[in-house]
């Protein structure tokens, strides 16, 4: 059974700092991995999706990497801003049509 | 884009009553929809997978007679919480996979906050 773990559970940083969020998964046979953002009481916003054949994806100040063999992914946020404060979830999909298995998220607070 | 809506966004009901939550794909046809439940400060827990025109597949430990799922059309799935109790209070999120675009990315709704008093 796939298990997804995210470290740290919570992170508080001053504005402008670069930071890394970690995600690990137990079964490396994945189809893709996705990073989401969730604001309090809201749904999920997809940030980056990495296919199993890819090593990384970038969007603006966000960069996500994937090391499938070691079962790890990182989300790098450059020059963090207070508006980045949210919970970040990673999720893996094992086959093309299957469900997503989520980690418990990292709650990020960026202090002005 | 691919937009998924949920209605209502918030609902408060009395213990013992039933409440229905709708999940709609607004600009695509969804052959598969998923229902998740999220507890405070916890991750999303998949409750069931529904495919249009067939019975939903429930995850282990989810009571199918309590959480009724209907996926009657390619743009609408409903979750009915029957005889709700305070422990059913939670944040319910649906997602949908477009069946007409050759992609399998899930698009999530904004969630429904259910409070059972």
The rough form of chain B would be described as globular
For the biggest sheet of chain A, the summary is: 6 strands, mixed
Element string of chain A (H = helix, E = strand): EEEEEEEEEEE
Q: State the separation between the terminal residues of chain B, measured CA to CA.
A: 37 Å
Strand content of chain B: over 45%
Main β-sheet description of chain B = 7 strands, mixed
The largest inter-chain interface, given as chain pair and residues per side, is: A-B, 22 and 22 residues
Low-confidence stretches of chain B: none
Distance separating the two termini of chain A: 41 Å
Helix proportion range of chain B: under 10%
Report the count of strand segments of chain B. 11
- Counting DSSP H or I runs of 4 or more residues, the number of helices of chain B is 0
Rounded mean pLDDT score of chain A:
94
- Strand share of the residues of chain A? over 45%
Helix/strand/pairing class of chain A, anyone?
mainly beta
Helical content of chain A, roughly?
under 10%
- Oligomer state equals heterodimer
Task: Describe what this molecule looks like in 3D.
Chain A has strands spanning 4-7, 10-14, 19-25, 32-38, 44-51, 56-59, 62-67, 72-77, 86-93, 100-102, 106-111. Chain A has 112 residues and is mainly β. In chain A, strands 2, 4, 5, 9, 10 and 11 form a six-stranded mixed β-sheet that branches. The mean pLDDT of chain A is 94. Chain B contains no helices and eleven strands. Chain B has strands at residues 4-7, 10-13, 19-25, 30-38, 44-51, 57-58, 67-73, 76-81, 90-98, 107-108, 112-116. In chain B, the strands form two sheets. In chain B, strands 2, 4, 5, 6, 9, 10 and 11 form a seven-stranded mixed β-sheet that branches. A four-stranded antiparallel β-sheet of chain B has the order 1-3-8-7, with no helix packed on it. The radius of gyration of chain B is 13 Å and the shape is globular. The chains are: A mainly beta (112), B mainly beta (117). Chain A binds chain B through residues 31, 34, 36, 41-46, 49, 89, 93, 96-97, 99-105, 107, and chain B through 6, 32, 34, 41-44, 46, 49, 91, 93, 95, 97, 104-111, 113.
């Amino acid at each position: 059974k796939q298990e997804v773990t995210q470290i740290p559970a919570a992170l508080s940083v001053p504005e402008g700092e670069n930071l890394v969020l970690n995600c690990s998964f137990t079964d490396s046979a994945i189809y893709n991995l996705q990073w989401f953002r969730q604001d309090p009481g809201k749904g999920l916003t997809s940030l980056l999706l990495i296919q199993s054949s890819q090593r990384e994806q970038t969007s603006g100040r966000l960069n996500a990497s994937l090391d499938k063999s070691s079962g790890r992914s990182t989300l790098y946020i450059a020059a963090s801003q207070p508006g980045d404060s949210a919970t970040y979830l990673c999720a893996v999909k094992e086959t093309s049509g299957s469900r997503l298995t989520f980690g418990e998220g990292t709650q990020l607070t960026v202090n002005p | 884009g691919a937009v998924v809506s949920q209605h209502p966004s918030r609902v408060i009901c009395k213990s013992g009553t039933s409440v229905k939550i709708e999940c709609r794909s607004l600009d695509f046809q969804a052959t598969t929809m998923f229902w998740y439940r999220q507890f405070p400060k916890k991750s999303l827990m998949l409750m069931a997978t529904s495919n249009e025109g067939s019975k939903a597949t429930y995850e282990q430990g989810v009571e199918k007679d309590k959480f009724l799922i209907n996926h009657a059309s390619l743009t609408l799935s409903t979750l009915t919480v029957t005889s709700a109790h305070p422990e059913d209070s939670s944040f319910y999120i649906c997602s949908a996979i477009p069946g007409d675009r050759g992609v399998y990315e899930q698009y999530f709704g904004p969630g429904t906050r259910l409070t059972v008093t």
